[in-house]
Write a sequence for this structure.
């Protein structure tokens, strides 16, 4: 099979619900629970991405499991999130260009061509939990500070006992995801990509997935 045919085949993968995909994967549709426009009561990803997440879940320590916060994201939700974030931080910037540069570090510009990462079904936001709850990752989901950077606690010196725990928890998530082919996003410890344009640029390959609608 040549690469062009492989690209066409993979790009047609449907979106699959993560609900019930594995006993070691739980779904917490964050944006639906926060009543974001266009959000669905569930999390959906491309078929190959779901399979990779099952691999990740199965290699976690006993009694640990994945919590999926967001996967495929509708254009409406992406647009609402982008505009909401702009309005929230607008007062901190005098220049519109500075505001947009800041926002772009955390929320992708809503677009269909080239598609925003989540609109492809190849981006996932997630964390790890055990019987005591979600592991301490140092910040909440969608924290737009330097502390949310994936490698913040790797670079920080003189870590406290709690910070060492946070660093190790992030390592567990990052190493587990990378072991099956995901790439991590520098600015957000919770965000990982497979098959989309951001993933392709990170590993110098061609993207697999284009944008997709949930009913495709």
């Amino acid at each position: 099979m040549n690469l062009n045919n492989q690209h066409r085949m993979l790009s047609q993968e449907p979106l699959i619900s993560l609900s019930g995909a594995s006993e070691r994967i739980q779904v917490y549709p964050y944006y639906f629970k926060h009543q974001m426009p266009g959000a669905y009561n569930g999390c959906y990803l491309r078929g190959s991405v779901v399979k990779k997440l099952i691999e990740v879940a199965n290699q976690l320590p006993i009694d640990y499991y994945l919590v999926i916060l967001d996967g495929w994201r509708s254009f409406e939700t992406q647009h609402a999130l982008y505009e909401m974030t702009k309005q929230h931080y607008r007062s901190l910037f005098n220049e519109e260009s500075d505001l947009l540069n800041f926002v772009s570090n955390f929320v992708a510009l809503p677009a269909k061509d080239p598609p925003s990462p989540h609109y492809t079904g190849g981006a996932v936001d997630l964390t790890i939990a055990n019987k005591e709850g979600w592991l301490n990752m140092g910040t909440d989901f969608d924290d737009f500070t330097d502390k949310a950077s994936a490698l913040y606690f790797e670079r920080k010196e003189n870590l406290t006992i709690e910070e060492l725990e946070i660093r190790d928890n992030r390592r567990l998530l990052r190493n587990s995801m990378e072991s099956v082919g995901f790439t991590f996003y520098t600015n957000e410890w919770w965000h990982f990509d497979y098959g989309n344009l951001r993933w392709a640029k990170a590993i110098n390959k061609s993207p697999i997935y284009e944008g997709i609608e949930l009913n495709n």
User: Anything to note?
Assistant: The chain has a mean pLDDT of 93.
